[in-house]
Design a protein that fits this description.
Blueprint lengths: L2 H24 L2 H17 L9 H14 L6 E3 L8 E4 L2 E8 L3 H9 L6 H17 L3 E10 L4 E9 L2
Antiparallel strand pairs: 1-3, 2-3, 3-5, 4-5
């Protein structure tokens, strides 16, 4: 194994251990803390990108903005059984996304730590914060539909901010 890969594995192990320790000490509150921290990072990461009200364009803008920061996070819209990509539920709109690569998932597997915990919520915060900057006057959050070793299916839910 080359030195760069060894450093990445060590960092992934450390991040997993850090999350595990935080979850043990803070309990369920850890998810909220991590989500808020991620949201702040997400807002800053896309400070100078284009804004749009089109959620499909916003997903593309976010993916490109993260790549410009060296973060490769492959996610894309996924219709599944729906006839349309964007669904409405009252005042909320929903878009399913499949996340194929995820640095968090890789870190968790390196440490042998469960998904759907604090690091996932931090990643959700990053995504939501960035999308709120790209799609002004919205409140965004992600819900996990299915988490797996090769991909995760999530639903982006947004509504106008009040």
């Amino acid at each position: 194994m080359d030195a760069e890969l060894e450093r990445l594995h060590a960092a992934a192990y450390f991040v997993g251990a850090l999350a595990h320790g935080a979850e043990k000490n803070l309990g369920k509150g850890c998810n909220s803390v991590c989500n808020l921290a991620g949201k702040r990072f997400g807002l800053e990461a896309v400070r100078d990108v284009a804004q749009t009200t089109d959620p499909l364009k916003a997903v593309e803008v976010l993916r490109e903005a993260l790549a410009a920061h060296g973060l490769v996070w492959e996610f894309e819209p996924f219709a599944g059984e729906r006839t349309e990509l964007v669904a409405s539920d009252g005042g909320k709109r929903k878009l399913r996304l499949v996340f194929r690569t995820c640095m968090v998932r890789n870190a968790l597997f390196c440490y042998a730590h469960e998904q759907k915990q604090s690091l996932c919520f931090m990643a959700h915060g990053v995504f939501a914060g960035a999308m709120e900057r790209i799609m002004p006057n919205t409140r965004v959050h992600l819900e996990i539909i299915q988490a797996g070793p090769n991909a995760c299916l999530k639903e982006m839910i947004w509504e106008e901010a009040s």
